[in-house]
Design goal:
CATH topology of the largest domain: Murine Class I Major Histocompatibility Complex, H2-DB, Chain A, domain 1
Radius of gyration: 24 Å
Helix content: 25-40%
Number of helices: 6
Number of strands: 18
Strand content: 25-35%
Strand order of the largest sheet: 4-3-2-1-5-6-7-8
Largest sheet: 8 strands, antiparallel
Distance between the termini: 41 Å
CATH superfamily of the largest domain: MHC class I-like antigen recognition-like
CATH class of the largest domain: Alpha Beta
Number of domains: 2
Length: 370
C-alpha cells in the first residue's frame, strides 16, 4: 500500500473531510553542516493554470542538499533528472516507476484540491487560484561506523495557499492541525495506525536509504572531476566609516571545506568581528561560501584567505594587501557568483511568486486575466 492509498483510505473514512496539503516554504532546505545531508520532495498543485512561464498547474521536485536533482510538471510529465550525477546513475526503470508515481500523485492532488477548497469555503467559481502543497523528506548525518547516514530528523508538512495546515511529529508519532478545518483530519489520521507506521517508516528508513545512495552518487561524480575552487577577495563600502573585506570561494566539488581569514598571519575569529556565511549550492553541482570582516580604510595589514577542500585536499590561498586593494562601491557580487546564488534560490522564489499572486488575486489587486 502506498501513500496515495493510505490517504484515500483516510478521506473515505472522513466522508470528504479531506486531505490537506502543504507546508510553508520558509523551511530551510540548504545544508550548512558539511556532515549533514537532506533529501526533500516538494509537490505543488494549483486549481487553475496561471498561464505564466515556468509556473505549472502541477509540479514535483526532488532536492538533494537543497539542490534540485529531478523534476516533473504538467508540461513535461516525466520524472526527469536535472543534475549530472542523476542523469548518470538513475536508471530507466527507476525513472519509469517514478514517473508513474508522480502521474498518480498528479491525479490525486487534482481530486483532493477540490475537497480542501470546499473545506475552506472556496470554490472554482469564486475566480481565485488556490494552491495545495506537500513537503516531506529527511535529514541525515555522516556516521563514521557505518556507510549508511544516521537519521537526524524528518519533515512531513502540508499547507494550503501558503499557510500551514498539518504536520507530522516523528517523535510523538502524532499529526497536528494548524487550523480548525484540519483538526478532524488530524484526529482521524492519528487513529489510522498503518498510516502512522508508513510515514515514520519512510522518514526513518526508506528516505535515509535513498539519501545515502544519492549522496554517494553525487560525491562520486564530483570527485571524478578535477575542480579547484575560485577564490575572490575584495572590499565593499558600508554605511559607516569602515570597509567590509570579503573572501568568496566558489566551486567546491563537495560540501566539506574550511576557510580562514588572516591578518598579518594571525587567524581572525568572531572576537575580531569575523562573519561566516552559510554554504550555498551553485548551478553546476558545486558549492560556494564566504567570510567577511569590517576593517578601517587606513588599515595597512596584509590579509590572507586560506581555503581548503577537505575531501580532495585542494588548497587555494589569496592575498589582499594595501597596494592592490579593490573596493566594490555598491552591494553586489561578481557575475558568476551572483548567477550561482540566484539559481540556488530560484525554487524558493518561484513558490513565493505563486503564493503572492494567489493572495493578490484574492484581495482583488490582480485581475483574473493575469
Amino acid at each position: 500500500m502506498d501513500l496515495e492509498d493510505l490517504s484515500v483510505l483516510c478521506l473515505d473514512a472522513l466522508t470528504m473531510d479531506a486531505w490537506c496539503v502543504f507546508l510553508y516554504f520558509a523551511t530551510r532546505m540548504l545544508t550548512v553542516n558539511s556532515a549533514t545531508h537532506s533529501l526533500i520532495y516538494i509537490y505543488t498543485a494549483m486549481s487553475a493554470d496561471l498561464g505564466l512561464p515556468g509556473v505549472h498547474k502541477f509540479t514535483a521536485i526532488g532536492l538533494l542538499d537543497g539542490k534540485p536533482f529531478d523534476r516533473f510538471d504538467t508540461d513535461n510529465p516525466r520524472k526527469t533528472p536535472t543534475t549530472n550525477w542523476a542523469r548518470r546513475h538513475l536508471t530507466t526503470d527507476y525513472l519509469d516507476k517514478g514517473t508513474q508515481s508522480r502521474l498518480s500523485k498528479q491525479k490525486w492532488f487534482g481530486v483532493n484540491l477540490d475537497i480542501v477548497m470546499t473545506l475552506m469555503g472556496h470554490s472554482a467559481s469564486d475566480g481565485d487560484v488556490h494552491v495545495i502543497q506537500w513537503l516531506h523528506g529527511c535529514y541525515g548525518e555522516t556516521n563514521p561506523s557505518e556507510e549508511r547516514l544516521r537519521f537526524v530528523h524528518g519533515v512531513d508538512k502540508y499547507a494550503y495557499d501558503g499557510d500551514d495546515l498539518m504536520s507530522f511529529d516523528y517523535l510523538t508519532l502524532r499529526w497536528s492541525a494548524a487550523t480548525e478545518a484540519a483538526k478532524p483530519i488530524a484526529d482521524k489520521w492519528n487513529g489510522v495506525t498503518v498510516l502512522t507506521e508508513y510515514t515514520v517508516g519512510y522518514l526513518r528508513g526508506e528516505c535515509i536509504k535513498w539519501l545515502t545512495t544519492f549522496v554517494g552518487y553525487s560525491k562520486r561524480e564530483l570527485r571524478d572531476r578535477v575542480t579547484v575552487p575560485d577564490v575572490y577577495m575584495f572590499t565593499r563600502k558600508t554605511n559607516g566609516t569602515t570597509l567590509t573585506l570579503i573572501c568568496v570561494a566558489s566551486g567546491f566539488p563537495t560540501n566539506t571545506h574550511a576557510m580562514r581569514l588572516m591578518r598579518n598571519s594571525r587567524v581572525l575569529n568572531t572576537d575580531d568581528g569575523l562573519k561566516v556565511f552559510d554554504t550555498l549550492p551553485n548551478d553546476d553541482d558545486t558549492f560556494q561560501t564566504r567570510i567577511a570582516v569590517d576593517i578601517l580604510p587606513s588599515d595597512t595589514g596584509n590579509f590572507t584567505c586560506d581555503v581548503l577542500e577537505e575531501d580532495t585536499g585542494y588548497r587555494v590561498v589569496k592575498h589582499w594587501r594595501a597596494v592592490d586593494r579593490t573596493t566594490i562601491p555598491t552591494i553586489g557580487w561578481p557575475n558568476s557568483v551572483l548567477l550561482s546564488t540566484m539559481v540556488g534560490l530560484c525554487i524558493v522564489a518561484l513558490c513565493l511568486v505563486v503564493v503572492y499572486i494567489v493572495r493578490k488575486r484574492r484581495t482583488g489587486q490582480i485581475g483574473n486575466g493575469v
